Amino acid sequence: MVNHDKLMEFVGRFAGDLGATMAAGNVVLGHELGLYQALASGPATPAELAQRTRTDVRYLTEWLRGQAAGGYVDVDPQTEQYSLNEEQAFALTNPDGALYFPGAFVLALGALRAISRIREAFLTGAGVGWHEHDADVFVGCEQFFRPNYAGNLVTSWIPALDGVEAKLQDGGTVADVGCGLGASTILMAKAFPRSRFAGFDYHDGSIALARKRAADAGVADRTTFDVNTAQSFPGSGYDLVATFDCLHDMGDPFAAARHIRDVLTPDGTWLIVEPLAGDGIAENLNPVGRVYYNFSTFLCVPNAKAQGGRYALGAQAGPQAIRQVVVDAGFSEFREAARTPFNLVFEAKP
């Protein structure tokens, strides 16, 4: 017999999820139309905000009410004046800040456009490559991950590695493998002007954008970006090789790990940044695990299967699975160097 209280609890969860699903599109609208930034300049009624943003007041009224219902903006119900508190503004208004929520929804909606292909892949076991996804996946991925990298990569992750910061300050050689649009590469190049950086990604569209963004950031003189795979990227004698949130996407992470070991200097370092996860499913039954398992179903596992390797680690592989790949590839040292609410940061040495 159905337990009524438990059923109502599940109905409440369903209503929250359905509202969040539709809210994703509304957050992207706020991002693309500059609505959050405009509201951050001061409280406003729908009419006042419509005037600021040159948008239609009726649409904006509905949008604001939905945002208030979800807790993304605040409202005075008596005056229907809307505002952003400091925490909301911090998370919703600065794409270059340490936290920017809208980018995650750009990525999510872009990934969901592949639902027909993913449905077919469930039936056939075939893969769906990263390059086959909607363009919003590439842009949204950068917008999702870049704030975390901006807030942690130079200030805490690299300093947590043994001797790496000093090498880069003096002038080192770095490979950023699976660099995407180059956000991590550019952050490092700006922080360490004496070092040289090479970004590699198999997706030519991402590499083209990375080159443009490096030029716009003024670091093109010390960065290069080339189309290549993690198993075959060129060069040797790297002081640091970095893989940011991409090892688990690879069809053959073991081959990538072996190649990385081969191209490092004898005292070089492999910086491995992976999604936060425990080793067993019970440790991952939480909101962060839910985010990553669901993204992984649409993006990570399909990409790994498309590459025809022996693995499909998925975004919740966990430390032991990553350690096994590293040790099997011949690395002698492996440790957790840092962590954030969304990432585990590992150091491996030959």
UniProtKB/TrEMBL annotation:
<dbReference type="InterPro" id="IPR053173">
    <property type="entry name" value="SAM-binding_MTase"/>
</dbReference>
<dbReference type="InterPro" id="IPR048711">
    <property type="entry name" value="WHD_Rv2258c"/>
</dbReference>
<keyword id="KW-0808">Transferase</keyword>
<feature type="domain" description="Methyltransferase">
    <location>
        <begin position="169"/>
        <end position="276"/>
    </location>
</feature>
<dbReference type="Pfam" id="PF13847">
    <property type="entry name" value="Methyltransf_31"/>
</dbReference>
<feature type="domain" description="S-adenosylmethionine-dependent methyltransferase Rv2258c-like winged HTH">
    <location>
        <begin position="27"/>
        <end position="93"/>
    </location>
</feature>
<dbReference type="InterPro" id="IPR029063">
    <property type="entry name" value="SAM-dependent_MTases_sf"/>
</dbReference>
<dbReference type="GO" id="GO:0032259">
    <property type="term" value="P:methylation"/>
</dbReference>
<protein>
    <submittedName>
        <fullName>Methyltransferase type 12</fullName>
    </submittedName>
</protein>
<dbReference type="InterPro" id="IPR036388">
    <property type="entry name" value="WH-like_DNA-bd_sf"/>
</dbReference>
<dbReference type="InterPro" id="IPR036390">
    <property type="entry name" value="WH_DNA-bd_sf"/>
</dbReference>
<dbReference type="Pfam" id="PF21320">
    <property type="entry name" value="WHD_Rv2258c"/>
</dbReference>
<dbReference type="GO" id="GO:0008168">
    <property type="term" value="F:methyltransferase activity"/>
</dbReference>
<keyword id="KW-0489">Methyltransferase</keyword>
<dbReference type="InterPro" id="IPR025714">
    <property type="entry name" value="Methyltranfer_dom"/>
</dbReference>
